[in-house]
Amino acid sequence: MLNIKNLQKKVPIPRAKVLKAAKAALRKLVVICHPEPFASLEGRLREGSLSIVFVGTKRMRAINKKYLGHDYVTDVLTFDLGENTGEIIICPRIACANAKARQTSMENEIILYVVHGILHLAGFDDHKPKDIIQMRRMENELLKL
């Protein structure tokens, strides 16, 4: 089950497109990588839930500080909450700024963050250079929706 929660009011959220992109990314991830853990991720989310939550800059900073010890606003955070439940938290104001800098649309930037979060839930990481390369490659594959 996919849920969207919009807890901010400054940036309009393309809700239907976000849901469609998340579902397509999950399906495509299973096709590209087929075996575990990707098939089980889709199954886990079918049995549980994935929430995509949009928050303002103050709330994003507070979440980032509380759970990761980083005292700054970030674009996206992903939490595997166990019990087949995941949460992707996105800050649309940061998405707007990043979209402008990258010369893309805010909608595309938000969809990138959704895909990025799904990849984290599937076990991908982006802390080491080789992991970043793999993460970007997978993002590009999943964004070819």
Tell me what the structure shows:
57% of the residues lie in helices and 17% in strands. It has helices at residues 15-33, 38-47, 57-68, 92-102, 106-121, 129-143, and strands spanning 2-6, 49-54, 76-82, 85-90. A hairpin with a 2-residue loop joins β3 (76-82) and β4 (85-90). The longest helix has 19 residues, at 15-33.
Helix share bin: 55-70%
Number of strands: 4
User: What is the C-alpha radius of gyration, as a whole number of Å?
Assistant: 14 Å
Largest sheet: 4 strands, mixed
Low-confidence stretches: none
* Net shape: globular
Count every helix, treating DSSP H or I runs of 4 or more residues as helices: 6
Distance between the termini: 20 Å
Quote the average pLDDT.
88
Structural class determined from secondary elements: alpha/beta
Question: Strand order of the main beta sheet, please?
Answer: 1-2-4-3
List keywords for this structure.
single chain; about 140 residues; alpha/beta; four-stranded mixed beta sheet; 6 helices; globular
Summarize this, please?
This protein has 145 residues and is of the alpha/beta class.
Topology:
Blueprint: E1 2-6, H1 15-33, H2 38-47, E2 49-54, H3 57-68, E3 76-82, E4 85-90, H4 92-102, H5 106-121, H6 129-143
Parallel strand pairs: 1-2, 2-4
Antiparallel strand pairs: 3-4
Helix pairs in contact: 1-2, 1-5, 1-6, 4-5, 5-6
